[in-house]
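worker-03 picked up job from queue 'complexes'. Input manifest follows; two sequence lines, order preserved.
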Amino acid sequence: MPVKAIARTSISRNGVGAFVSPCYKISVNYCNWGGSSTGLRELLNAGKIDKIAQEKSNIIFEVIKRTGHPSLKFHYNNDVVQDINIANLKAHEIVNKLDEYSQRSGNDLFKFNHRVLSINDSVRGVWSPLHTPKTHRHKI
Amino acid sequence: MFRNSLSVRSITSINNIITTNAYRSLATASIQSNITSDLTPLKINSNGSRDLYAIFKLHNIPYLVTKGDKVYLPFKLKNAKVGDSLKLNNVTTLGSPEYTFKVDQGINNELYELKASVVEITKEPYYEVYRKKQRCRRLKTFPVEPFQTVLMINELKLT
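worker-03 finished. Artifact:
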């Protein structure tokens, strides 16, 4: 009988080979009149948003003028769009929000109570009393 | 399969352990070559680094990883951005199903390659901690939303 290879589908894991940033687009909504978007207008006038966009070259930045409170919309690879309200925030707080949310993956936040998350088979195997030689077996 | 996990203090004593195993032919070969830092048995046994694990230390906390694992760090790694690739150089243990090579002070960096990429910097879900002070009827509320850094193990191999 010929030896058959075990079929295995490769698992795509972002970051094992190449890394693609999960956040691909940020739309910045501001109002030209309202007082709640003074912080954002400050950033836009100083050209800081341009600078941030140049630093994060793998993310598309979209600046939209719209009435109402200002907001940041983060578009992620997993079809998640997070709308962050930045009304009445100062310029540096908005920059912090941009940094923080652009480094997320768009998944729900969760507390992981272990150190390592692995989907590989255990290297050291599962211990079994029946798979050890008789001389090495645990005797009661 | 007969699996025994043995911890070895230094590279030289790995040869002694091989002789106790069933792999006597391998052992004689490595004794003849007489190389002190010979990890060839581990290399052969690791199945092209598929059956290879490493324990690295970060802030003195050990993490047992294989290639393609995610490491969840309950803090924001300093000076690291998403997409950065890190070279982890404090590895205390390298192991395969049959052999374990352990040096508590850290294995020589030339013997292995362990890389990780920063995949995500997020936060843990928001929760509140309540504290009660003596002789005060009110509870103090503290918002907690700690940072979380996720590393993906890029590369793990013996060189």
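worker-03 released lock.
The first helix of chain A runs from residue 38 to 46.
The domain at 23-102 of chain A is CATH 3.40.30.10 (Glutaredoxin).
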